[in-house]
Amino acid sequence: NAGVTQTPKFQVLKTGQSMTLQCAQDMNHEYMSWYRQDPGMGLRLIHYSVGAGITDQGEVPNGYNVSRSTTEDFPLRLLSAAPSQTSVYFCASSSYGTIYFGEGSWLTVV
Amino acid sequence: QQQVKQSPQSLIVQKGGISIINCAYENTAFDYFPWYQQFPGKGPALLIAIRPDVSEKKEGRFTISFNKSAKQFSLHIMDSQPGDSATYFCAASMRDGGSQGNLIFGKGTKLSVKP
């Protein structure tokens, strides 16, 4: 049982580059979300989706795009990376309010 | 505006001692209060959770105490072990409805249990 799978695990980007963080879940959960974790800041919600075709913004959405074409996948796109987006990114899926997190993607923007 | 305030930032406890982490929330619409445990290099994992219709929930060595009138809840780890050394996050959400997964996290407590 894979749960929530994120790729890549580590990535270094140059300022201005774009990239996509992939997230897939095999639990048939309707709800999926992306959080970023910064030292001393806890986890902050970037975007979330309550089902295929439906997305909405969280607390810190600027600089990020998402789409949800299938129940299983919820990619996070950085359109033009900035050093302020250096962070650890966690994808999550939820069933009846219990949230399951992926292992994280460490992103460094130089 | 920080909706969930967590303290302390760090905590050192001797093996066998009791670890206590406190959280306070502001939004009275919150009705689900989980605690997450995170080891270095890993994602947060659900440890224990409580709803406001009970004042305490115990699972093994982990207990949540909940005070609805004070809008506070706390995690107690009894007989703390070195393997409990991790970062702990409290969180809150409105469990029902479309945003049921939108957790608001505290900033975390780094627990070190000394042997």
What would the average pLDDT of chain A be, to the nearest integer?
93
Global outline of chain A: globular
User: Mean of residue pLDDT of chain B?
Assistant: 91
Kindly state the number of beta strands of chain A.
11
Estimated helix fraction of chain B: under 10%
Q: Biggest protein-protein interface?
A: A-B, 27 and 27 residues
SSE string of chain A: EEEEEEEEEEE
Low-confidence stretches of chain B: none
Termini separation of chain A: 36 Å
Q: Characterize the largest beta sheet of chain A: strand count, sense, and whether it forms a barrel.
A: 7 strands, mixed
Helix- and strand-based class of chain B? Answer: mainly beta
Helical residues, percent of chain A: under 10%
Number of helices of chain B: 0
Query: What Rg of chain B is obtained from the alpha carbons, in whole angstroms?
Result: 14 Å
Key features?
heterodimer; A: 110 residues; mainly beta; 7-stranded mixed beta sheet; 4-stranded antiparallel beta sheet; 11 strands; B: 115 residues; 6-stranded mixed beta sheet; 5-stranded antiparallel beta sheet; 51% strand
Summarize the structure.
With 110 residues, chain A is an all-beta fold. Chain A contains no helices and eleven strands.
Tell me what you see in this structure.
The complex is a heterodimer of chains A (110) and B (115). Chain A is mainly beta. Chain A is built from no helices and eleven strands. Chain A has strands at 4-7, 10-13, 19-25, 31-38, 42-51, 54-57, 64-66, 76-78, 87-95, 98-101, 105-109. In chain A, strands 2, 4, 5, 6, 9, 10 and 11 form a seven-stranded mixed β-sheet that branches. In chain B, strands 2, 4, 5, 9, 10 and 11 form a six-stranded mixed β-sheet that branches. A five-stranded antiparallel β-sheet of chain B has the order 1-3-8-7-6, with no helix packed on it. Chain B is globular. The mean pLDDT of chain B is 91.
